[in-house]
Amino acid sequence: MHELGVVFAMIDTLEDVAAENGLTSISRVTLDMGEVSGVIPDYLLDCWKWASDKHDLLRGAELAIETVPAVTICNACGKTYPTVEYGRTCPYCGSGETVLQQGNEFQIRDVTAC
């Protein structure tokens, strides 16, 4: 379960943000997480609840996850399509010359202080 390591890295980042901005308590963290980021939301939330309660800065803080849909663009025909549904093969022209355009993100979007 790499989600716990991801949460620890998030906490390190949040501690840095809090120090830079003079925050003593965070009540909510909003995370943009791509549909194909490789992180399982339920596991991440469980790890967040466990780890955040061990830090005064984050005790009781809510983690809100906003899912970014995975979209792939075809280099052959230029069309975009939903990655999860069709994979790497373009449903319009059948080409495998495709590139993930979005959906692999994993970033903190917003921090709400108490």
Record keyword descriptors for this entry.
single chain; 114 residues; alpha+beta; 3-stranded mixed sheet; 3-stranded antiparallel sheet; 32% strand; elongated
For the biggest sheet, the summary is:
3 strands, mixed
The rounded distance between the terminal residues' Cα atoms is 30 Å
Ranges with pLDDT <50 over ≥5 residues?
none
Instruction: Enumerate how many helices there are, as a single number.
Output: 3
Q: Major sheet: order of its strands?
A: 2-1-6
What's the average pLDDT?
Answer: 97
How many strand units? 6
What series of H and E elements makes up the topology?
A: HEHEEEHEE
Q: Which class do the helix and strand fractions yield?
A: alpha+beta
| Overall shape | elongated
Helix fraction, binned, reads: 25-40%
The whole-angstrom Rg is: 18 Å
Beta-strand content bin? 25-35%
Give a brief description.
With 114 residues, the protein is of the alpha+beta class. It has 3 helices and 6 strands.
